[in-house]
Fold each of these.
Amino acid sequence: MADRVDIAIIGTGPAGVSAALTAKIRNKTLMLIGRKHLSDKVRKSHQIQNYPGFPDISGEDLAKALSDHLEKMGIEITEEQVTAVYAMGDHFAIQCAKEMYEARTVIIATGVMQGRVLPGEEENLGRGVSYCATCDAALYKGKEAVVVGYSPREEQEAEFLAEVADKVTYVPVYKEETGFEASNIEVVHGVPKEIRRDGNKSVLVLDGSEIVSDGIFVLRDSVSPGQLVPGLETEGAHIKTERDMSTGIAGLFAAGDITGTPYQDAKSVGEGNVAALSAVNYLAKK
Ligand SMILES: Cc1cc2nc3c(=O)[nH]c(=O)nc-3n(C[C@H](O)[C@H](O)[C@H](O)COP(=O)(O)OP(=O)(O)OC[C@H]3O[C@@H](n4cnc5c(N)ncnc54)[C@H](O)[C@@H]3O)c2cc1C
């Protein structure tokens, strides 16, 4: 296991990047967990007119500027998907698809979850529903699985699963064309409505049809905050925070879209900065 860091920041959008820069300037050991690609939301922004100092900057250019800033400060991104964060008393255990990490404080900057939680999804998590193909693929050796993919990036996860499973049915929840190499992946189009357990089988209900399999992978860019951190106080899709970005769990902070509207770059950057400074104060008091 890697060394325990002072501050772990989960999410590489404007909030997470801002928090990482401030943590670094305050000489804390840190890890920034997310995607080297940074944020789909930033990259999809055609033209941003309200980010101070950068009139009419495109999302791609803002993402590049954020990436360059991280590089200049010597901050690396740990390319991982966090599946759970556990409060352990004096530290946090951060469960990722590939490894487990430890940190004294954590800042959640994961943005808001894309798509609503399906009825039956959370109730059946761990009983035929999974959020991580890398973690659970081995359980599907010789079995049939369904993947509900919320972005083309999830196609790689389905390909990986298809190396182990007999058959993978892939349901894309996006407009782009799918492109698979594995011959045991079938693409089915439809709108996911519900997940049900039927004996030892899992049923994905689509508008107009049902797919029965041994298990269902629901792959989104992010998971709901309540799933990510057991015991965390939430308000709908958002994490409840104080003005200093602290949450109900000591040492755990949140920043950006995940704390609520308005969903804005400048707000996210500001909250990332406040969360990092609050984590620094928290560490100093300890
Ligand atoms: C089309 C579009 C146009 C927009 N235009 C503007 C604009 O003009 N002005 C403006 O101010 N705002 C605009 N926004 C909103 C702005 O993009 C968001 O408010 C901002 O990106 C939020 O930043 P964030 O850091 O909170 O989250 P995000 O940018 O969503 O970043 C969160 C990151 O966390 C990662 N992540 C999530 N879960 C996990 C996990 N479990 N493990 C690891 N990583 C995880 C995600 O992959 C993502 O990279 C626009 C948004 C869109 C979609």
Amino acid sequence: MERPAWAPRSIDISVPSVSRIYDYYLGGSHNFEVDREAARKAMEFMPGLPKIMQANRAFMRRAVRFAAEQGISQFLDVGSGIPTFGNVHEVAQAARPDAHVVYVDHDPVAVAHSQAVLAGNERAGVVAADLRKPQEILASPEVQQLIDLNRPVALLLVAILHFVEDEDDPYGAVAELRDALAPGSLLLLTHASYEGMPLPAERAGGAVDVYKDIRNPLIMRSREQIARFFEGYDMVEPGLVPMPHWRPETETWDPDDEDPWAYSGFAGVGRTA
Ligand SMILES: C[S@@+](CC[C@H](N)C(=O)[O-])C[C@H]1O[C@@H](n2cnc3c(N)ncnc32)[C@H](O)[C@@H]1O
């Protein structure tokens, strides 16, 4: 298989990756046939996967605009993924040209492509690091240079925590990051769940098995388990809700017009006191 210029030498392009599968669902071009095959297999069980991803991205953009309106000018996006349409730095810097953005991902393609997209942007950077090691994220030169931890930060954990298994202590990692942030910081979060999905878990579960097969298990958590990630945060209205319900921006928005798959998973924003 020929290796395109954007694929770092270090990656095994014969093994599917979570970030490239996600890129495929969103209509991106940074994926290989192995990724597309895994994505198509997962879609046999959850045909609405691309709709879930689109609802996730749409929430992310609304929540970033909300944070900017609240006066936040620093964004730390952990599990930022392969840049695609409407990225955090574009939305944040369109709302506030002074916004500083740091992307963090452990996937080499996500990091390499973010570097390419951010070239020349002095207020944005990317770190290759793992959410399971929050201190490495905080100590990275990019965070040290671009983020003032004495001022409020919007921390994005968007569609990442469902890739962190309980044995890797995702609640501990989220708490460590919360404790490092100044009062008035925001947590912007989405998480996959069987709750709200238009198919019973027994039928949709085959998609979860695809991620298990590629050694990146997808952990479906209940609304209650997801709410626990907001410990130490006050929830911003309307709380932890299905993604399309979080502050829709159009007045004519009608829940009945939304694709039923968009209601799989939860979104919320919390603020530290
Ligand atoms: C589904 S994508 C979400 C991308 C983006 N946040 C969004 O919502 O559009 C999940 C991303 O999280 C990254 N990821 C998964 N586990 C991670 C970890 N432990 N540390 C850092 N990144 C991780 C993956 O590489 C992937 O790029």
